[in-house]
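As a warm-up, study this chain.
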Amino acid sequence: MGKSIPLVLWLLTGVVVGVTLFIHISYAGTAENGSFNIVDAEPGGSGREILASVGSHVLYTSDVAATRAGEGAVDNWIQDQLLACAAEDAGLENPAMSRFVQKRAEQLYLRDLMVEHIISSIDSPTEVEVRTYMQANPELFLLERHYFQIIAADSAIADSLHKRLGWGQNFQITAQNSSLGQKAAIGGDIGYITGGEMLLQGLPIEIALLEGLSEVVPSSIGWHIFKVSETRAVTDSLRVMRSAAEGLYNSRIDAALDSVLLVTENRLFAEVVH
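Now compare it with the structure written out below.
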């Protein structure tokens, strides 16, 4: 778990997400005319109720119900299918990409089913388990660090700021002058937080256990520089227990997912051919 995903897969996944609902709630059928309409029963008497059609493409009532589609789903389907048909008529379709998108949507659908199944099998940790987990990780859950943060727009700016901070430039003044973060006006002060809570925000272990000035940390919103000025014993144990419980629960889910991945990979032998 936690492995980085190449940018191209993120881009392809973005394409898939846009069509996943369409693929989940619709598939080709037979209609009697070339225009879209709302009809009552499937031609041929198979018993499946057709909710809408566009040419030879049909949307079944049962498919919409199965996906729990919200209000406006039928209108959206009709509009999307009209545009899809227009793309086909214009010769825009790449058959190889269409096949990939369909297989990828099926893959994501089955993946989500498996993840939901695994999560449903994991019990929430008890209070005793949470306390034991906290005591086993005191640096993450029994100690609060006073964090300050600078957010820069790009890596070059972040590297320049980091170099100046390393030379002794005041962190809070730099944050006030240069940070894009919401706390810039107060010197980037984000308060006392445990390392475990920082991990839950998706930050690396190096930031969770930080002392002094951090390296530059990239994220989806920019480049971050953190500083820890001091530490103290936890003051709000209930808040920290909640975060520890979430961290323990997530770690159990990750372990279960890793176990399923390992068993399945050993059975099917996954490899990158080229």
